[in-house]
Amino acid sequence: MIRAFAAVDLGATSGRVMIGxxxxxxxxxxxxxRFPNGPVQREDGLHWDFGxxxxxxxxxxxxxxxxEPAIESIGIDSWAVDYGLLRDGMLLAxxxxxxxxRTARGVEKVHALVPFEExxxxxxxxFLPFNTMYQFAVDERMPDADTALLIPDLLAFLLTGARVxxxxxxxxTGLLAVHTAEWDRDLAEKIGVDPRIxxxxxxxxxxxGRLTPEVAARLGADLPVVAVGSHDTxxxxxxxxxxxxxxxxxxxxxxxxxxxxxDAPVVTDAARAANFTNELGVDRRIRFxxxxxxxxxxxxxxxxxxAQDGTPIDLPALLAxxxxxxxxxxxxxxxxxxxxxxxxxxxxxxAVLHESGHPVPQDRxxxxxxxxxxxxxxxxxAVATAAQxxxxxxxxxQLVGGGSLNELLCQATADSSGLPVLAGPVEATALGxxxxxxxxxxxxxxxxxxxxxxxxxxxxPRRYEPR
Length: 467
Ligand code: LFR
Known about the structure:
The protein is α+β, with helices and mostly antiparallel strands. It has two domains: 3-232, Nucleotidyltransferase, domain 5 (2-Layer Sandwich), CATH 3.30.420; 242-424, ATPase, nucleotide binding domain (Nucleotidyltransferase, domain 5), CATH 3.30.420. 38% of the residues lie in helices and 22% in strands. The protein is built from 17 helices and 20 strands. It has helices at 50-67, 103-113, 116-123, 132-137, 151-160, 167-170, 185-190, 213-219, 232-238, 269-273, 296-309, 315-323, 345-355, 364-390, 407-417, 428-440, 448-458, and strands at residues 3-10, 14-23, 26-36, 39-42, 45-48, 71-78, 83-87, 90-91, 147-150, 165-166, 201-202, 207-210, 224-226, 248-252, 255-262, 277-280, 286-293, 397-400, 421-423, 462-464. The strands form six sheets. It has a seven-stranded mixed beta sheet, with helices on both faces. A four-stranded mixed beta sheet has the order 3-2-1-6, with helices on both faces. The protein binds beta-L-fructofuranose. Pfam families: FGGY_C (PF02782), FGGY_N (PF00370). GO terms for molecular function: ATP binding; glycerol kinase activity; rhamnulokinase activity.
């Protein structure tokens, strides 16, 4: 029998609503809606256009139910760390975008109260200036709030009225204790955050609640919302059909999340110095990984060129031109902090190259090639570091997400790492979302390995050998 589920999957540049169909030998997605997403500049900084996102999601879900009346539940995943504050069930302000510059003040404030070494030993998180705890520390609305909800939990609240914190995403806040996976209330207090705003934690697979009567009427169905690996990276890794326990993964979209799946966290001095994170995965696996700036560098460059030209850019054509550039090209540090904010990306990259004494590629194909090769070099570096920090001998890299369609990037990653790259599935995040819902409904295997086996039987990867 074929069972159906709805997945809401929000990335930093676009969002999707999908229907997922699952059977003993079947795992399929049907895209119902796709809408753009991105930072919007408001008077007080960079935000997400949350009102527009909600409308797109509700319209998309209504269309999904119209197309597939057998849908059994809804699951929501998104990028991590960002949140909304509630008071008496009302959203106090539009959620900020994690690339807003105010987080720098949050970092200073928190580190003055609790040094980074202590933070790392408690939460196991790599330093990223936008981790939720830094945002909380400078949020002017905090004193008025009674609840803080991360984006997928906030959406689930708007759909059901239930307030929970799904664990995989909670692990990106900085306030989840790495060894117990419970809120570190003492740490919250130390940085001036009232722990009462932190909602009860739930596991991926738990039912969050049923749709409110208003939402059910709008969608034309009364459905439960089920917690999935609500951090998009957790869902992507859950559906990454790793060929063995020794394989590394790269979940490549706006970011490239590069690492290994472990059973227990690694919070050594070396892991801290290498800035490796211990985020929680589905079934409490540890996502031991490092954030590499991924396709953001490319999408922001394309956005700048489109604004300059006043016409859309044909990215596949540009990538094909980039592939045939044969001059030796300079590499830059993809993780340079000056590349984190939106706007003017080609010039920022040129400045980074210039400062490190490298020539700046003169045309777009050459710059695109430099970008792709630099991302691949950073990927290879992170894989090697992950292997070193854990003592594993990595045998292959499973590259999932949008980046798996970028042949130049996949080949360059194989070449730079000296390892085979298995590319796909492109929609790993939505698949992971659907699979966890299906498992909760007894419509899919019980273990993570069983779920991944279904992915590998239904989505064969493309293999790139190192050259
Ligand atoms: C990927 C991702 C990363 C997280 C970054 C910011 O979409 O969720 O895992 O570090 O976005 O939330």
